[in-house]
Amino acid sequence: MRKILVTGGSGYIGSHTVVELVNAGFEPIIIDNYSNSSPEVLQNIEKLCHRKITHYKEDCNNEEKLRKIFLDHQISGVIHFAAYKAVGESVENPLKYYENNIGSLISVLKVMAEFSVNSIVFSSSCTVYGQPENLPVSEESEIIKANSPYGYTKQVCEQILIDLIQSNPKFKVVLLRYFNPIGAHPSSLIGELPIGIPNNLVPFITQTGAGWRKELTVFGADYNTIDGTCVRDYIHVVDLANAHVKALEWLQNKDENLGVFNIGTGNGVSVLQAIKAFEKVSNSSLNYVKGKRRAGDVEQIWASNTKAEKELNWKAKYTLEEAMEHAWKWQLSLGRKTEN
Ligand code: UFG
After folding, report:
1. Cβ count near 24 (within 10 Å)
2. Nearest CA to ligand 1 atom 6
3. 15: Cβ below 6 Å to ligand 1?
4. Does any ligand 1 atom lie closer than 6 A to the CB of residue 85?
5. pTM attached to this predicted model
6. Are 10 and 17 in contact (CB under 8 A)?
7. Which residue, among 292, 298, 307, has the nearest Cα to 268 in the 3D structure?
8. Which of 39, 44, 157, 183 has the fewest CB atoms nearer than 10 Å to its CB?
9. Which residues of the chain have pLDDT under 70?
């Protein structure tokens, strides 16, 4: 397996994965419409890889364009990242999410079938578990109805892929259920570039630390957790990227058709603990206030990652502090604020 089509390959997780794919000897081919990333990312990926990366500025909902890529290259497998990912926006505009996230997967799958490409790694999310009863949450836990259209698109896409396996015995799927990706490449050449006000905790913390934002609001301090704030499993984006390399190796070497894996560290971290880790690595104190709960937040979730460790031969290497340090270095590399 050599040429891997990476949809959304210029995005946050996609860009880090492209670098790890090159490091592992694969040839990634990017298709990205840059709806939530910038073409500059590509230059930095190329700097890190010391080579040119084949890329197409196209939308993967466009089957004609996809077909052309499959004609130009002998694709062995696909990693499908391309999707919208803002939970709040998905509540306001569900059709946008259903159309893009489900539609793009269907387009990719149709074209894969035409070219007899049978291996896909899909970006899923721990959001499929909702608030699990037992923690850490394992892959066998019940999937309960998602509490946002975004989360529901992940559940539907998982089901579409599982249904396809039933109809085509040659078809092989890995579902990676990501926990909370944070951090940036240690080189600070690539990282997360949230457009506008960040929704996620760590970019908000680093932007506040850098003076781009006045203060961070901690969404809820009255939860039934260690310090009253929500608990998540924050995974370094490079560790997450490496899980995709392992997933491709699994597809190549295993006889099974379906692999479902949690990709997290196995550690639950509260919002206040995340803030403390930031304060330590930045040697500063963060301006934050405790505010109201955010609608839709689950109280606490962290991964059982033993299945990924055993079957994918994958392990998270970076600590929370290292991830924060890389997030902070990346933030500082962005310089002064230029937009809201
Ligand atoms: N938080 C704050 N203040 C902020 C931002 C976040 O206190 O300004 C808190 C949240 O309330 C939550 C924690 O920080 O307790 C983490 O929030 P994020 O928004 O960073 O991440 P989420 O866990 O809400 O969401 C992530 C992904 C989604 C995915 C979801 C699944 O961003 O794509 O996990 O649980 F669907």
Report:
1. 13
2. 201
3. no
4. yes
5. 0.97
6. no
7. 298
8. 39
9. 1, 337-340
Please confirm, yes or no, whether 129 is among the known catalytic residues.
no
- CATH domain 3-182+234-263 topology: Rossmann fold (3.40.50)
Distances (CA, A) of 266 to 130, 203, 245: 17, 22, 20
What are the pLDDT digits (tens) for 53-111?
999 999 999 999 999 999 999 999 999 999 999 888 999 999 999 999 999 999 999 99
| Lookup: tokens for 89 | 């926006």
Q: Which CATH architecture has domain 201-232+266-333?
A: Alpha-Beta Complex (3.90)
Please report, for the chain, the start and end positions of each structural domain, with discontinuous segments joined by +: 3-182+234-263, 201-232+266-333
- Say which of 97, 150, 178, 234 is annotated catalytic: 150
Compute, in angstroms, the gap from residue 200 CA to the centroid of ligand 1.
Answer: 5
For residue 86, give both structure tokens: 């803002």
Please tell me the distance between residue 294's alpha carbon and the centre of ligand 1 in angstroms: 9
Rounded to the nearest angstrom, the distance between the alpha carbon of 115 and the centre of ligand 1 is: 38
